[in-house]
Write a structure and sequence with these properties.
By secondary structure, the protein is α/β, with parallel strands linked by helices. The chain has helices at about 5-10, 60-80, 100-110, 135-145, 180-190, 205-220, 240-245; strands at about 20-25, 25-35, 35-40, 55-60, 90-95, 125-130, 155, 170-175, 195-205, 225-230.
């Protein structure tokens, strides 16, 4: 077997994850947005190749975020002073507001759309940075994938206090404050209005866990009593939702 043949066989994309928007350029930035807010998991019984994940519930707000990124890239390319003699491209993917789909999007943005244009088949990836993600749970997964490649990730919405740990997330950056400020404000409101008997409902992800831990820490030494805690499942479960509301 010749080296060329061996290289060609090794460079085979095992699956494809279609992007929402693509534009070619000398340099590329990635984007991951929750263009849908729910997904149907395929049957994973390991006896056949699973079908693609089906995303439901179009999110117009996230769609506007993606369009804003496209507009920003177009304006940069039209300005001859910002990137003279070079163009900026993008690859934007839908995470469906779910960590597993966000992981697929992160791997897809590092590769090309086919074996012919995949940067991993030729040289180093031209990806400069990634804009995303919205949810902290998705950002944790994506950030860990990008870390070995030293590709910076800039989030526009992930506020989990966990990201302040630079040892765990050295390439993660964001443009909003972390949840410590939100948690302190909630604790002050509870004390101010003398709400001494409260319940906490959180999501089943790092964002929810860190927020609850921070709030309990802020409420220490006050008269506020946390009567109960409930967790909303990551995947929608109607039975569990009814149980939470009844409690």
């Amino acid at each position: 077997m010749s080296p060329a043949t061996s290289s060609a066989e090794e460079c085979t994309l095992r699956n494809r994850f279609e992007p929402g928007f693509v534009a070619d350029g000398d340099y590329v930035i990635g984007g991951i947005f929750p263009l849908h807010y729910n997904q149907e998991m395929p049957d994973l019984n390991c006896t056949y190749k699973p079908p693609p994940v089906k995303c439901n519930g179009f999110d117009p707000r996230a769609f506007r975020w993606a369009q804003t990124m496209r507009l920003a890239v177009e304006e940069i390319n039209q300005n001859q002073e910002l990137l003279p003699n070079h163009t900026l491209g993008y690859k934007i993917f839908d995470s469906c507001a779910y960590p597993l789909t966000g992981q697929r999007a992160a791997l897809a943005v590092l590769n090309g759309l086919s074996e012919e244009d995949s940067p991993t088949c030729r040289a180093a990836s031209p990806l400069l940075a990634l804009i995303g993600e919205s949810g902290s749970a998705q950002s944790i997964v994506v950030s860990r994938i990008l870390q070995p490649f030293r590709i910076p990730m800039i989030s526009y919405f992930s506020s989990c206090a966990c990201f302040t740990d630079r040892r765990k997330y050295p390439t993660f950056f964001r443009v909003i404050p972390n949840d410590d400020y939100q948690v302190k404000a909630i604790a002050q409101l509870l004390v101010r209005f003398s709400w001494t008997w409260v319940g906490l409902i959180r999501g089943d992800h790092e964002y929810g866990r860190f927020a609850v831990q921070g709030l309990l820490r802020e409420l220490q030494g006050t008269n506020v009593c946390v009567a109960y805690q409930e967790m909303i499942p990551l995947l929608y479960n109607s039975k569990r939702a009814l149980e939470i509301m009844q409690d």
